[in-house]
């Protein structure tokens, strides 16, 4: 998967991962992919719901060494 931008939101608590994700995805063109790294366990539900409500696509997510990783495609 080609990633256009990586956002490090590790160590940030809700709602900061979403706030930072929103800002980062606004800097991308439609169809580009943003990779988000977060340690906030609530980010999974938050980012899934946010992507759906804002017209972006959550391509996949995984957890690696207590870091949640998300790949979002800008709508």
Short description, anyone?
By secondary structure, the protein is an alpha+beta fold. It has helices spanning 16-26, 43-54; strands at residues 5-9, 33-38, 57-64, 67-73. It has a single domain (5-73), classed as Translation Initiation Factor IF3, CATH 3.30.110.
Looking at the structure, the CATH topology is Translation Initiation Factor IF3
Corresponding CATH superfamily: TusA-like domain
Biggest sheet strand line-up:
1-2-4-3
Instruction: Characterize the overall form.
Output: globular
Q: Beta-sheet strand percentage?
A: 25-35%
Order of helices and strands: EHEHEE
Protein name: UPF0033 domain-containing protein
InterPro entries: TusA-like (IPR001455), TusA-like_sf (IPR036868)
Domain UPF0033: 7-31
Family: Belongs to the sulfur carrier protein TusA family.
């Amino acid at each position: 998967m080609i990633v256009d931008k990586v956002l490090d939101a590790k160590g940030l608590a809700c709602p900061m991962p979403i706030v930072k994700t929103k800002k980062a995805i606004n800097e991308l063109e439609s169809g580009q992919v943003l990779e988000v790294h977060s340690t906030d366990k609530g980010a999974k539900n938050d980012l899934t719901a946010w992507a759906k409500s804002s017209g972006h696509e959550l391509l996949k997510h995984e957890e690696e060494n207590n870091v949640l990783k998300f790949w979002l495609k800008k709508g």
